[in-house]
Specification:
- The structure holds 2 protein chains of 2 kinds.
- By secondary structure, chain A is of the alpha/beta class.
- Chain A is built from 19 helices and 5 strands.
- In chain A, helix 3 packs parallel to helix 6 (106-119), helix 5 crosses helix 19 (328-351) and helix 6 packs parallel to helix 16.
- The longest helix of chain A has 32 residues, at 7-38.
- In chain B, 72% of the residues lie in helices and 0% in strands.
- The chains are: A alpha/beta, B mainly alpha.
């Protein structure tokens, strides 16, 4: 059947087609955004999902939890920390679980903590990472938050801070205006799972589990032809613009405070741990920024009764692989300090609160 | 600025809007020239000067040829024009190849020349726009078209951004009249342009780039793969290069349609060809007709003795191969096709074999011959090509593709043949005509969203950009 149309009719039809095409494209961000927001955590944020899954399976039940980013994750050698703590605590020993994740800034940590607390009994002691750059209002980790966790409902809370960060603005626009493109791997992964006819896809991606040990972070420098000093400068350079006009405010600091409050409400003792950073990274901090950071921590300790363990300038530069991640020697040294100076005394306080 | 990048979408949106907002025809053309300069300068601003020089020289020479009083003067002007255009092409594209080949030749004669490393950047699209300027000057010389007097129109003919970098190779006789004609926003044409653009985007950004992810590693280390996998790679490359180039051409055609221009068709279901000669009538049509009109026929074509025809075919195809790149693999690719074309003349297919099942058999046989040629075309060197072909024809064990990768490759190959089938029977066009306008609009939008969803993580540049 051949349909013949005159020029005027052709123009009208084409205009209508283009109108409907445009309308569908205008509505697509809403549908795509809804799909992205509904995407299961193990697809959108496999690192967080693997962490929660491992926490749920951990036996015997861990009583001490380490929360933070790859920075703290690379410094803490979980197996060695458990061995050292066993030696130090004897019968009082309890297993330690490292829930640090890549790009685990305060918003991500809050996201994970919520899920950890509902999946099994809360821990008794939590070591929570905190660093000046993680709390900066102009935060370089927003791009990851947008990709992995942000939903339309979170937008009003985060938009004022996201608008301050150039990279995050473009990521937010692409995430919300072209969700089918930006989140294509998430949506395809989810479709694959649905199409596979309800076949149970393991919620523990092998890559995410492998990443959980952070050994790959500590190995980074081994085959790198770039000298360490150069790597430190390059790495620290990435933080420079974010630490300029430093301000602790907005969504990230609120997320940290909310996490502390949540943990305290569950009866956990909280220690805020500032992990070591290289001299190049420390040099980026002005006196004013350091004062703001110290004041903020002081307020948290007073308001929520938590403690602070500051290791930021304890390690020499040769124990790093870049500006803020440990190499094997650095992680061994830090793990020893953490066990002896922070973890063991704190745990003794938890099991025997009247000892003081 | 790749056609499938966000930067191009933004660039085109601005160009399109301003173009149709302008009311004066000459302003519109000037705007398109400005947009084309920005488009090209986004890659390397300095080479805009080179295009301007090439186009400027041929613009002046064409006018002089037209005004020349004697045939002898016309001929000298033509030779000078061709000399300048070809010298630039040879310098930028072939000087390294010529020096290396000369050094190799001297080495065979026992003379060791000191190594000379040239670092010449190949200007994007130089092979395409040089052929366009050559065809323009030759057509003026042959009095087939008048020389263009309006420099703005001539500049737009050479620099029109949809065809500037990877064709199609446009003839002045087809394109200049379109530049002179006043344009009116035609919604049906705009819709057609969007449809063609999206088809190209799907071919390039989804099919070609996904296939590249599967087969590129095989061509990097062919010695490690099994014979069956190498056949899949050869066949896959045939599909990849088609999706990549015809995808680019479709996007160029679509963008041109939206601006009221019609570029020539470059592909007509080439893998349904039942002979190599038919293939070259369906594949990169603007290049194959160019070499036919400006190399093969001037050499004598098929007018002389049989051996002269075979010689003309082989030389023409060798030039066509060399046009693709400065390397012996490309020359041998061209000679291989020249030999196949000659063999088809010596042993022509019987007429009955062009229908039904025998034709299917011929299509498969032609595809096999093309795949062999493409292995030579794709390989880093003749040695690697020879080794790969040896492994393909002598069954050997080695690494195989995972079932997921093999499934993906076969799915893409099936997609292309389904597309060929739909295109050959004009089925998709008929369905579009029967669809209500709103449904067609929604289908277009969904196609765009599907493309976004299926684009792989690492976008690849167009294969034909290197030519």
């Amino acid at each position: 059947m051949q349909v013949k149309r005159n020029h005027g009719e052709l123009q009208r039809c084409a205009r209508r087609s283009l109108f409907w095409c445009g309308l569908t494209l205008c509505l697509s961000p809403l549908v795509g955004g809804w799909l992205v927001d509904s995407c299961p955590v193990h697809i959108r944020d496999p690192g967080a999902a693997a962490c929660v899954s491992l926490w749920r399976r951990a036996k015997p039940e861990p009583q001490i939890l380490v929360l933070g980013s790859s920075r703290l994750g690379s410094f803490v050698r979980t197996r060695e920390l458990n061995t050292l703590s066993k030696d130090l605590l004897g019968d009082d020993f309890t297993p330690i679980f490292n829930a640090s994740v890549i790009c685990g800034e305060p918003i991500t940590v809050q996201f994970i903590t919520r899920r950890l607390l509902v999946s099994r009994a809360p821990p008794k002691l939590v070591l929570l990472e905190t660093s000046p750059d993680l709390l900066a209002r102009n935060n370089r980790y927003f791009v990851f938050v947008i990709t992995q966790q942000l939903t339309a409902g979170d937008l009003p809370r985060y938009i004022p801070d996201i608008l301050r960060s150039e990279a995050a603005v473009s990521r937010l626009i692409s995430s919300r205006v072209t969700p089918f493109f930006r989140h294509r791997n998430h949506l395809l992964g989810w479709t694959n799972e649905l199409v596979s006819g309800g076949r149970k896809i393991p919620s523990l991606p092998s890559k995410a589990v492998e990443a959980h040990s952070f050994q790959f972070v500590r190995d980074r420098g081994k085959d790198d032809p770039v000298p360490l000093a150069k790597r430190m400068q390059i790495g620290a350079g990435r933080f420079r613009s974010y630490l300029r006009n430093y301000q602790i405010a907005g969504a990230t600091s609120a997320a940290l405070e909310s996490t502390v409050a949540m943990l305290r409400a569950h009866g956990c003792m909280v220690i805020l741990v500032a992990p070591p950073v290289s001299s190049a990274q420390r040099a980026l901090l002005t006196g004013d920024a350091q004062t703001q950071f110290d004041t903020f921590l002081q307020r948290l300790t007073i308001s929520y009764g938590c403690e602070v363990a500051n290791y930021s300038n304890r390690l020499p530069d040769h124990m790093f692989v870049d500006n803020h991640h440990a190499n094997d020697a650095g992680s061994i040294k830090f793990t020893e300090w953490l066990a002896a100076e922070t973890l063991a005394p704190a745990w003794r306080k938890v099991v025997n609160p009247r000892a003081d | 600025m790749l056609f499938h990048s966000f930067a191009f979408f933004l660039f085109f949106a601005v160009t399109f809007t301003v173009y149709w907002l302008l009311r004066v025809h000459e302003f519109r053309m000037a705007w398109l020239v400005a947009a084309s300069i920005v488009f090209y300068a986004a890659w390397n601003p300095w080479f805009v000067v080179l295009i301007a020089f090439t186009a400027g020289v041929d613009y002046v020479f064409a006018l002089r040829i037209e005004q020349a009083a004697t045939q002898r003067r016309r001929r000298w002007l033509l030779i000078a024009s061709l000399g300048i255009s070809l010298s630039l092409l040879v310098f930028f594209k072939y000087s390294g190849f010529l020096l290396n080949s000369s050094a190799g030749l001297f080495r065979l004669l026992g003379v060791e020349l000191p190594p000379l490393a040239l670092r010449i950047v190949l200007p994007l699209g130089i092979s395409f726009y040089t052929f366009e300027t050559i065809s323009y000057v030759v057509d003026v010389y042959r009095r087939q078209i008048p020389a263009e007097r309006n420099p703005l129109h001539y500049a737009l003919y050479i620099m029109f951004f949809p065809h500037l970098i990877a064709g199609p190779i446009v003839r002045a006789g087809q394109f200049l009249p379109q530049i002179r004609a006043r344009k009116h926003l035609d919604w049906a044409r705009l819709q057609l342009g969007i449809q063609i653009f999206l088809r190209g985007l799907f071919k390039k950004a989804v099919l070609a780039d996904r296939l590249a992810g599967i087969i590129d590693p095989i061509f990097v280390r062919p010695a490690e793969y099994s014979s069956a996998t190498l056949w899949v790679a050869a066949f896959g490359y045939a599909i990849q290069v088609y999706c990549d180039f015809s995808g680019y051409t479709d996007m160029a055609l679509g963008a041109a349609h939206a601006l009221g221009f019609k570029l020539p068709q470059n592909f007509r279901q080439p893998y349904f060809s039942a002979s190599v000669s038919e293939f070259w009538r369906r594949w990169h049509i603007t290049l194959s007709t160019w070499v036919r009109d400006y190399i093969y026929i001037p050499m004598g074509g098929s007018r002389g003795k049989p051996w002269e025809t075979y010689r003309n075919l082989i030389v023409t195809m060798a030039v066509l191969g060399l046009w693709h790149g400065a390397g012996w693999t490309f020359v041998i690719f061209g000679v291989y096709h020249g030999v196949l074309l000659s063999l088809e003349r010596i042993f022509p297919y019987p007429a009955w074999s062009n229908r039904g099942i025998p034709r299917v058999g011929r299509v498969i046989w032609t595809l096999l011959l093309l795949c062999i040629g493409l292995v030579i075309f794709r390989s880093e060197s003749l040695g690697i090509a020879w080794m790969m072909l040896g492994r393909m024809f002598q069954p050997v064990a080695g690494i195989s593709l995972s079932s997921a990768a093999l499934g993906g490759a076969l799915l893409i190959i099936a997609c292309i043949f389904a597309g060929h089938l739909l295109g050959a029977n004009k089925i998709s066009r008929r369905i579009e005509k029967l669809m209500p306008a709103p449904l067609l609009g929604v289908a277009l939008a969904l196609q765009f969203l599907l493309i976004q969803l299926l684009i792989p993580e690492d976008a690849k540049p167009f294969i034909y950009f290197q030519f």
